[in-house]
Design brief:
The chain has helices at residues 3-33, 134-152, 156-160, 165-176, 186-192, 199-208, and strands at residues 46-49, 59-62, 75-76, 107-108, 130-131, 209-217, 220-227, 232-240, 243-246, 252-253. It has 6 helices and 10 strands. The protein is globular and about 45 Å long. It has one domain (3-253). Strands 5, 6, 7, 8, 9 and 10 form a 6-stranded antiparallel beta sheet that branches. Strands 1-2 form a two-stranded antiparallel sheet. Strands 3-4 form a two-stranded antiparallel sheet. It is α+β, with helices and mostly antiparallel strands and 255 residues long.
Length: 255
């Protein structure tokens, strides 16, 4: 395997570790903080692991969504038509059912990953796989926007529709390790792994996310976007039965 290819694989593997770290951090909030301390980190932030790959004590928190301004362009988001994965869908965790969620229109700037390359930085995600075409970018962007919008509304069951099966399964494993998390449905799990203090940041993230690139390789990809125009984020995505789903609680900062 060429050296460059090895470097890309290592860089992407590190980002996947970070995505797992975000989920572990969220579980830690529930287990240690009783599910709602306003001083705790929230799911509106990505837990960025160190080079060693430690996903617990050696994690640092990076802010998600405080920048000013938002991008606009030609991309559109809408209902991806996904059905709820796992056991969610009853609406029992929040009083809202998935059918209550109405996808919103979002304008995304697009433009490809070249605009997000960091001079002298690790651009393994920006150069991962190949740049997807506009239709794939729009579909993946819609899944992310719908996930963020549903989560911001507190419609956990609807948010579950846009999550990958592997992410839901990871939630179930986290629930097994914490008796404080309701595992009766995917929506209940997502609600239990979300700090209530994150409501404002989740709303800001949902409103200001601007998607610019989708780098794909097989059924996996990274959606690259900004929240307010400054910090660059990458969200791991998974294509399941022709529909893109998010594979992380939050995006990971790339700059």
């Amino acid at each position: 395997m060429p050296f460059r290819r090895i470097a890309v694989v290592r860089g992407v593997s590190k980002l996947l570790i970070v995505a797992v770290a975000a989920a572990l951090l969220a579980a830690g909030i529930v287990a240690c903080g009783g599910g709602g301390d306003s001083g705790s980190s929230t799911t509106g932030a990505a837990s960025q692991g160190q080079a060693s790959g430690d996903t617990s004590s050696n994690a640092k928190t990076a802010k998600s969504g405080g920048d000013e301004g938002s991008g606009s362009g030609t991309g559109k988001s809408g209902d991806t038509g996904g059905s709820s994965s796992g056991s969610g869908g009853e609406g029992e965790s929040s009083g809202k059912s998935a059918s209550d969620f109405v996808p919103k229109h979002h304008n995304d700037s697009g433009g490809g990953s070249a605009q997000y390359k960091v001079k002298g930085g690790d651009n393994s995600v920006q150069e991962y796989g190949e740049e997807a075409d506009t239709s794939e970018l729009d579909a993946a962007g819609a899944a992310l926007h719908n996930f963020l919008d549903a989560r911001a509304e507190g419609n956990w069951d609807a948010a579950c529709q846009y999550m990958s099966e592997e992410m839901i399964k990871s939630f179930e494993k986290l629930a097994e390790a914490s008796k404080q998390v309701d595992a009766s449905s995917c929506g209940a799990l997502l609600r239990g792994l979300t700090n209530p203090a994150a409501k404002a940041s989740m709303k800001t993230e949902a409103e200001k996310t601007d998607v610019g690139s989708l780098r794909t390789e097989g059924d996996r990809s990274f959606l690259i976007y900004t929240v307010g125009g400054k910090t660059i984020y990458a969200m791991p995505m998974k294509n399941e039965n022709g529909a893109w789903k998010v594979s992380g609680l939050t995006g990971t900062p790339l700059n």
